[in-house]
Amino acid sequence: MLSGGDMLVRSLQEEGVDLIFGYPGGAALHIYDALFRQKKVKHILVRHEQAATHAADGYARATGKVGTVLVTSGPGATNAITGIATAYMDSIPMVIISGQVDSSKIGEDAFQETDMVGISRPIVKHSFLVKDPRKIPETIKKAYYIASTGRPGPVVVDIPKDATAPDQTYEFEYPKKVKLRSYTPASKGHSGQIKKAVQLLLAAKRPVIYAGGGVILGNGSELLTRLAKTLNYPVTNTLMGLGCYPGSDNQFLGMLGMHGTFEANTAMHHSDVILAVGARFDDRVTNTPNKFCPNAKIIHIDVDPASISKTVTADVPIVGSVGSVLKDMLEIIEGADEKPDATALADWWKQINEWREKHGIYTKNRFSTEGAIKPQEVIQALYEVTKGDAYVTSDVGQHQMFAAQYYRFNKPRRWLNSGGLGTMGFGLPAAMGAQFADRDAAVACVTGEGSIQMCIQELSTCTQYHLPVKIICLNNQALGMVKQWQDMQYESRYSESLYEDSLPDFVKLAEAYGHVGIRVTKREELKAKLEECFSMKDKVVFMDIAVDPSEHVYPMLIAPNGSMRDMWLSKTERT
Amino acid sequence: MRRIISVLMENEPGALSRVVGLFSQRGYNIESLTVAPTEDSTLSRLTLTTTGDDHVIEQITKHLNRLVDVVKLVDLTEGAHIERELMLIKVKAAGAQRAEIKRCVDIFRGQIVDVTATVYVIQITGASDKLDAFLQAVGEAAILEVVRTGVSGIARGEKVLSL
Ligand SMILES: Cc1ncc(C[n+]2csc(CCOP(=O)(O)OP(=O)(O)O)c2C)c(N)n1
Ligand SMILES: [Mg+2]
After folding, report:
1. What is the pLDDT of residues A233-258, one digit of tens each?
2. What digits encode the pLDDT tens for the residues A119-132?
């Protein structure tokens, strides 16, 4: 016989949960006591509930498993909201357990009461309020099932304190299977549609494979790579998809979209067939939807029917899990007598290579290497020093875009960033999650002096759990991305994007937490200092790197009313 | 175009708020909404009317289907269907007006369900445009209060919306 609290913890054990990121408080104390009395599920005490959600999220992105969060009611629950929304926008599997006030007090504005199910409703895949302790095991089973299947996402389980009370005990049985008559995620794609897609793909003269985060979430990277290699078609990735196709491969055009490469965006614009896989035609990709790729027929594979034809109409929609659909497509392609039109393809590659030579960021440095260190150089050096094999998390801003452009991700689940919500503060806790996922790996958090201060308190969590993450702070003394927009659209009126000499001494700050801080101001020492940083395998190192404050991120799609080939290439040059 | 979407969903607390929340969150409009448990008490049937072009309606049905509580749904306006709404209206009915209103009620095949010396309560069922027409016929001046249930509907013929 077990109490509700014990049943909850046992259910987590049965579910194979090894780590929970959380923060205790009144309504969750029975659960915390149940955690204390067992060893299988380890709890990580963060310093702010937002960090608990980002850390669980980072862990989920790095492993593919469901991340688990435990918070108390009221402020604990509301502090978790930003992280839940972040996970929701990027379809990350996560279960958030929140304590709630006693069920008899719900609705009375009790101390630390907040309607968690209500507040989180628009940013969860599903949620449960479990008033009856007997339903805890079944609900946990459902929560993990829903979070991890179909298009993944966060699931909230809100549990009133009395449902976890130690004085009431019940027979515990963990269900082996879940049955949800109202939830049947798509699996196999429609075979007729798949055939049609293959025909269209093989007949293409100027094809592009446009692959997004869904390929990573659906573990389809290997299949996608095989497909692209078999056909010798160019591949571009969304911000979320980086790493799903090897970034240093010659068929890779780089990222597309707002800060995508010239060759990726231009190739998209001129393509005649686009194979979109696990991507959702985000507005940061398409630019003006009705000017998007005017001559392209679009094949769209996605597990979520609601993502298909939402902003851009698909000619051949295929609803199904990316892995299964790609497998079916490959089978047909590999068995087909038809081959892609070799001459057309050769012409297409010739054209693409010309674009690469003209404005590509991988054929030549498109920034000057004089004066202050350029942020791009830092990422190039980071890539070399870590041999392209680190887990790289990022915050949001210019540093994020530079990392996405210049770190060549060759494996899936190595690039962890908040793409959909764009949450500053994500980077450090996500890096902690990644370090938990792979204790021996190099984990770098590429951040800005603005973003890092949104979850800086987690430096203390890193101390407690010996998480030797490396913080690569591109310190440009400003909210750089905001400032870039102010340069471009507001005649350089820097409204609230500067800190007026108020930045902390990050080296001393790191030291105060027991870590190592290194300041870099000279180009000549950049690489050596980075080597030094990564050689300290068991230390958190805060690299405070002074970079050119006037640098902008390019290319940049021209909006409003631009197509994908309309880009700023530098401060003065446009297509 | 006006559409009638009929949804079979789990009869669970919170299910309705998820449906309604979806509409406000994504900027779709709801013109009317009715919901009640079905003969199977674990299921509720919800009928809503909305307007939008084909693209919007497709998005609405896809997003509704994505809700974990939604079991099945159908756009009734895609096929032959029966649509009904019930309306109760309270009107001033004194002197010569009484006979006039009674005639009008008969023409619309309504019923007078409550009577006082100065007031009638009338019940009318039918498609929404019939109810609108009745209100016009009675005239604004006479109307004291109107309450409508919102549309519910069912497909004609063999087609059923069930598990
Ligand atoms: C929580 C949050 N608040 C505000 C923003 C808007 N925002 C986007 S980028 C940015 C500036 C980030 O500055 P910093 O971290 O220093 O990065 P930089 O652009 O300078 O590299 C801001 C304020 C955001 N994305 N997230
Ligand atoms: Mg900055």
Report:
1. 999 999 999 999 999 999 999 999 99
2. 999 999 999 999 99
Q: Is B14 on the interface with A (CB under 8 A)?
A: yes
Q: Give me chain A's average pLDDT, please.
A: 97
Q: Which helix (H) or strand (E) holds A33?
A: helix A29-36
Q: List the catalytic residues of A.
A: 49, 111-112, 161, 481
Enumerate the residues of chain A whose CB falls inside 8 A of the CB of residue B62. Answer: 305-306
Q: Is the pTM of this model over 0.90?
A: yes
**Distance from Cα A398 to the centre of ligand 2, integer Å:** 7
What would the pLDDT profile of B71-96 be if each residue is shown by its tens digit? 999 999 999 999 999 999 999 999 98
Contact B163 A181 (CB under 8 A): yes
Does the beta carbon of A551 sit less than 6 angstroms from any atom of ligand 1? no
How many angstroms is it from A17 CA to the middle of ligand 1?
Answer: 33
Chain B CB contacts of A146 under 8 Å are 68
* Pocket lining: A479 vs ligand 1, CB cutoff 6 Å: yes
Tally of CA atoms within 13 A in the half-sphere of A157 that contains its CB: 29
In whole angstroms, give the CA distance from residue A226 to residue A333.
Answer: 11
User: For residue A114, what are its two tokens?
Assistant: 């907040």
Question: Over the stretch A400-419, which tens digit does the pLDDT of each residue have?
Answer: 999 999 999 999 999 999 99
DSSP state of A149: S
Q: Which of B10, B55, B62 sits opposite A182 (nearest CB)?
A: B10
pLDDT of residue B163: 87
- ipTM exceeding 0.85? yes
HEC string of A198-264 equals: HHHHHCCCCEEEEECHHHHHCCCHHHHHHHHHHHCCCEEECCCCCCCCCCCCCCEEEECCCCCCHHH
Read off the pLDDT band of B22 (50, 70, 90): very high
Characterise A535 by phi-psi region: left (phi > 0), alpha (psi -120 to 50), beta (else).
Answer: alpha
Nearest CB neighbour to A306, from listed B10, B14, B59 = B59
Q: Is B69 on the interface with A (CB under 8 A)?
A: yes
Q: Is there an atom of ligand 1 within 6 Å of A397 CB?
A: yes
| pLDDT confidence of residue B1 | 86
Tokens representing residue A14 in the block: 């049965």
Determine the Cα–Cα distance for residues A418 and A83; give it in Å rounded to an integer: 10
